[in-house]
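name: query_chain
kind: protein
chains: 1
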Amino acid sequence: MASSSQPREHAVAHATFAPFKFAWHLLASGLLVWFVSMVIQIAYVRYYHLNPDVHMEQQINYYIDKAPSKGLVEALAFKAYWLVFEATSFQRLVSSAPKPADATTEYQEPLGKSVHRTIWAAYRQDLIVVAYGTVLFGVKVAIVLFVIPLFLILLVAAGIDGLVQRSIRRACGGNESDTLYHRAKLYGTKLLPPFAIVIFFCSPVPFEAAWLFVPCAFVSAALLRIQATYYKKYI
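structure:
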């Protein structure tokens, strides 16, 4: 009795903590993508010697104008702006940034102001890119939320059609292919959608999101259909 109850307890524990595990993985993945996108944005601005304010604001305005619903996108952008500029007092830091000192007063100012001046002069544009880049990240999150229903509709339709094809194949004695099932599962769910999301969030130049996500949704749906067609377990 004890041995039979252990698997049941493990299943209950797994089902109980699965949402927390999923939320943790989602948060960790989001922070990792945010960090990589900030590094790419900083490298792009530094390499091409761009004005960070103008470059980042152009991207934000582009995605807001292209969004299906400007209300939701602007709301998330406002929340991200409040989190970055107001809650962290970054805007006050920018407005109170020290100006270059004269040669006559360079050695008369306190050590703290001198260190503050040196750090701000070295990393000013990087800090601005990170601040505006976080707002841009919130805008892109809103756009991805509009893409999710398209993915779900195509995946559900492809999954149902694949299960129908699976029933026909099993009734007619068709061949099974474990290789096709696992390859379709790998590329259709574990590689292609995350790769498209990383490309979208980490791109330092604006582009139409539909050019990336619509083909990705159709290819993922086709791979899911293959996966459901060659699903070997009983349902």
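note: DSSP finds seven helices and no strands in the chain.
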